[in-house]
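Lecture 7 notes: from sequence to structure.
We start with the chain below.
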Amino acid sequence: MSRKQRPPIDDEDEPDMGDLFDDLQHLESLVDSEDERERVREAMQTATEVQDADQAVFGRVVWGFGAADAAEAVLGALLFGIPMAVEGGTNEAAEFLTTRPLYLAGTLLAGVAIVIGILYVAEFQDVRVANPILGFIPRRLAGVTVISFSLAVVLLTAWGRVDWAQPWLAFCTCAVAFFPMAIGAALGDILPGS
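Predicted structure tokens for the same chain:
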């Protein structure tokens, strides 16, 4: 596609918020100055805020990652994490992982992969990447995973489910809790559609 062409709108459907975002993202790639790009980003933020309040929960455009998104991720992580904090199976699974570092790595990678799937592949919402960290790490992905793991550490420590005198076991326990908490955080973040 050349710099002068705009992405085509599917003629079978009425234009929707996703089409507007496609146009705005295309415009963002065409403008010459940082000030103009910032104005296009502001228009994108405004578009996310004016989506119909009565629009269905699914199919909305989700762009950016702010305090409200972080709060939704915390709530989702807690909903999935509190059962992990009180369930003894979390500690049993962690003990298993302490001697199997490849399984531990697989657990962490699978958790991140499922979050990516929920946010960007399953298409519960039209999730757009805004201002990626280092130019390639989506802020929403980073926010959801960091919030989930941090909350696992805080929750399990505060409730005495981990003993940091044994840091490897404590880390593995937090990794086990992170897995469902990250799923909950991703769902909590995007399902309200904000």
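Points to note: DSSP finds seven helices and two strands in the chain. Helices lie at 17-30, 34-49, 67-86, 89-98, 101-121, 139-158, 167-190.
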